[in-house]
Amino acid sequence: MLILKSLVNLRQFIKYFILLENLLICWVDSKTILVTGAGGYIGSHTIVELLNTNYSVVALDNLSNCYAYNETEIPESLKRVRSLTKKEFIWNKVDIRDKDALNDIFKNIPLMPLFILPH
């Protein structure tokens, strides 16, 4: 968290993590960001910082690298994010390789890509 606090602004923060981790981060509008791999360590910590910087977040994860009590429940890491930040975000269990599922999500959220890296 020390590294996160020392970064000058959010764009530097995002670029820093894009270089280190294969995350898909899309700018939805000026205050909403979509993050994949949201339930993992980097994704969940990214969401904490985004929420604390007053961004809205759309979180996606296929639960392959995080723990959820069952397939319909939000991952434990994201429950902790809500507990720590006291803020809400949109959660979807989806594999980003599932084109139909992504299209269903994107019908409600017009995305403008900012950074895209494959998982």
UniProtKB/TrEMBL annotation:
Domain of life, per lineage: Eukaryota
Organism classification: Eukaryota, Metazoa, Ecdysozoa, Arthropoda, Hexapoda
Molecular functions (GO terms): UDP-glucose 4-epimerase activity
GO biological processes: galactose metabolic process
Gene3D superfamilies for this protein: NAD(P)-binding Rossmann-like Domain
Enzyme Commission designation: 5.1.3.2
Cofactor: NAD(+)
Keywords: Carbohydrate metabolism, Galactose metabolism, Isomerase, NAD
Domain NAD-dependent epimerase/dehydratase: from-to ranges: 33-108
Name this polypeptide is given: UDP-glucose 4-epimerase
Pathway: Carbohydrate metabolism; galactose metabolism
InterPro entries reported in the protein's UniProt record: Epimerase_deHydtase, NAD(P)-bd_dom_sf
The keyword RNA-binding is annotated on this UniProt entry: no
Catalytic activity entry: UDP-alpha-D-glucose = UDP-alpha-D-galactose
